[in-house]
Design a protein that fits this description.
The complex is a heterodimer. By secondary structure, chain A is of the alpha/beta class. Chain A has three helices and seven strands. Chain A has helices at residues 18-25, 49-58, 123-133, and strands at 31-36, 39-43, 66-75, 78-87, 92-101, 111-114, 136-139. A five-stranded mixed beta sheet of chain A has the order 1-2-5-4-3. Chain A has a two-stranded parallel ribbon with strand order 6-7. In chain A, a hairpin with a 2-residue loop joins β1 and β2 (39-43). The longest helix of chain A has 11 residues, at 123-133. Chain A is elongated. By secondary structure, chain B is an alpha/beta fold. Chain B is built from eight helices and four strands; from the N terminus they run αβαβαβαβαααα. The longest helix of chain B is centred in the first third of the chain and has 30 residues, at 17-46. Classes of the chains: A alpha/beta, B alpha/beta. Chain A binds chain B through residues 148-153, 157, 162, 164-165, 167-171, 173, 176, 178, and chain B through 99-100, 102, 127-128, 132, 134-140, 143-144, 192, 194-201, 203-204.
Chain lengths: 178, 222
Amino acid sequence: MTTEQAKPEETPNLTPGVFGQFLAEHDISSTRLPDSTGVETIEVTTANLEMALKRLRNSAETRLDFLVTVSGVDAGDNIESVYHLWSYEHTKELVIKVRVPKSQLGADGLALVPTTSTYWSAANWHERETFDLVGIRYVGHPYMRRILNPWDWEGYPLRHDYKQPVDALNDKNPFSFR
Amino acid sequence: MSVQVPDELKETITVTNLDFVVEKLSEMLSPVVSPLVSPVANWARSNSVWPLTFGTSCCAIEMMSVGMSAFDISRFGSEVFRATPRQADLIITAGTITRKMAPALITLYEQLPEPKYVIAMGACTVTGGMFNDSYSVVQGVDRIIPVDVYLPGCPPRPEGILDALLKLQQKIRTQSLEDRRKKGNSEMRPVRYVDYDTGRPMEDLIEEAKALTAQDIKDIAG
């Protein structure tokens, strides 16, 4: 690896792809991010998220009617909420990310993102899972409660700074070779 | 009398003199009768071990396949898998036990009537398996319930389950019921209780509650 290669973080401005241009026509600004394994990835602000998803779902040119998953990432400085969309009609994929910088976290360490479960019910359990594991609070969700971990679990396990509690149920067996 | 009726049930349950006499009689006769009866009784018990349908994860597929006609488990006596723990006498813990599932498994185990047996099936229930360093998987089901036979494998083949069942039958045949009863059921009690809401062992929560000072209680109560 030579030192002449540019660091991949400082991406030059990527040209907007098909969906980015479509959103720009509808007055929604979006930034193009590097492709996720060949799929166009765009970033949208939290304020524009609902409008963007509704436009992408309802308009005939980009009928992205299948919300594949809503997940969350702890990416260094930001916490991201990731939406994967798929269109049955045009067989095209899109990845939308919403970034919340860690400096802007809410009172209890949760990132605040508007919910999609009110107009896209597939997102209901996915958002609960993301809340449980990454700690993104979806504002407006009807039942924001932990879904995989026990109800009163403390901490968000998929964050990088998570320390797992060691008690009698998961401490190291004294005869273990590890 | 060995079993005292608790106070709240004294109105509905009466232990008559006849029960007392029968109990004393069986105690007196047992040195004579049990060497004759108990091998037969144990053989009968071992050849009709009915498991509970308990499959949480991938090992359940292998348990299903051992219940089907190719690797038939009913030829070894497990004719039916009972859906209710009250009618079963064996739990084959087939699958990963997480902290969220642990209280449910303890409840099921306590609902099994004695004598009850546990086969820990698969690596996850033996010592945590592939989830070795996990925050939410109980590292081996013997941290919450007492286990009779450990069956490693990921998943063990159906023939492996049959082998574990045969070992369990051997254990049942050689262990007398009198000894089990005399130990005061210490072998058939959950090792540790797990809280339902937080997923942590009850002892930790009790310690925390004991360590609360009066000021903490005022703070919590508001």
